[in-house]
Write a structure and sequence with these properties.
single chain, 156 residues
Length: 156
């Protein structure tokens, strides 16, 4: 009995050895330019989403009690989706806290409007001046939102 050994061709190794293609720095620059081309549309989507949340779930919203928990969750998750363009503002973390609040409200089967209102005010503040706030103040605000969103009266 003879054993035959064979080595199948490795496409990746072959591609690495061949000349051509992009340099890593060129690929990174192209990727950054591609992402940058999304900035304007993403910021517009962010502002539209914040306006929609305010219109449907804000203090003055008509029939906000009739809105679904899932709708608030979906809108808050849209903020997370585009928050890379406002890094350093805390908007992403505030939106995650709002998602958590929507989940907790859904579990309880009841809205906690005071907590929703606090989150909406914080989102508006972070959108307008979040990047200029000292990190300690921003972190303190976000920790407070987390406490509010995860507060359960039956566990206090």
């Amino acid at each position: 009995m003879t054993v035959r050994k064979f080595k199948p061709p490795n496409r990746l190794a072959k591609m690495i050895k061949e000349r051509g293609g992009l340099l890593a720095q060129d690929a990174i620059a192209a990727a950054e330019a591609g992402v940058e081309s999304l900035r304007e549309a993403s910021l517009a989507a962010l502002d539209e989403t914040l306006a929609e949340i305010e219109m449907r779930f804000g203090k003055g919203a008509e029939n906000r009690e009739a809105e679904s928990f899932e709708s608030l969750y979906v809108l808050a998750s849209r903020i997370i989706d585009v928050s890379a363009f406002v890094a350093g503002t805390g908007l992403d973390r505030a939106a995650m806290s709002l998602c958590g609040l929507a989940d907790n409200c859904a579990e309880a089967g009841a809205w906690r409007w005071d907590a929703v209102d606090v989150h909406l005010n914080a989102l508006k503040l972070l959108r307008s001046v979040g990047a200029s706030l000292p990190a300690a103040q921003r972190d303190s605000m976000l920790q407070g939102l987390y406490k509010v969103s995860h507060f359960r009266p039956d566990e206090s």
